[in-house]
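Q: What structure does this chain adopt?
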Amino acid sequence: MGIKKRVTARVVNLFSHSEKPLENTHLYQGDSGLFGPNSISWEVLGDVSSFVGGIRALLFQAAHPEVAAGVADHSRYREDPLGRLSRTAYYVTSMTYGAIPETDFAIEMVRKAHMGVSGVSERGLTYSATSPEYSAWVHNTLTDSFLTAFQTFRRSLSEKEADRFVQEQIKIGERMGAAPLPKTAEDLRLWVVNHPSIDESKAMEEAIAFLKKPPLSRIELAGYRILQQAAAATIDPKIQKILGLDHSPVSLNAGKSLIQGLRWALKFSPAWKAALIRSGAEFDPNLFRDE
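A:
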């Protein structure tokens, strides 16, 4: 087996611990989903820089004590990390590239998972996964992180393109009942970095410790650590300090080199390809991997 196939097999396996997204998307011919072939979202989420974006979002989300408490109290991420990773990837992929019935199903799946996820955080504040405020923290940090990762590790977007990505992603946030939802990339960045709820907590420390060294094989962990440190390097210094993150001066360059190698091996997302086929759009099939 060649190096491309070995790398692809290892990466795909990490995301293969739940239902496969878009398995029946061919049944919805002509349905462009929430965004469509000319969207910025399809380009941003179809690139492997989204791996860094996902890690960055998880790091950022831990800085909110009530959100971190909800994950600590109700998630099985310690016992089933790859299952949680795969379910998150299923949601993101379905919402980005799915036909409307597939996005509806993904939203309902998340809503059911969030039912009963409530409690009291370490600092004595109540939380609920169905709260618009907490949904906004998760959604907005995810949007900001995917955008930051793409611009850092793929290409710079114009202000208009960046704002369009944020406005496209608002469609997902609205379906999740999240509020507030900033409408420009700069407003989103400021909302995230200056959020008044950001603080240290035991749940945060546990989450960050796990995210620094998840239970992966030696080879997988080596690659993951490069991506994790690259993600940390893109976070605002004051948030890095709260999260207790560190990274070397070469973290960004190391991340860029690895992402470039992964892009060579993995090409663009097959979900993007499936959505293009379903939408009837023209594209170059050589740019995409098959599975």
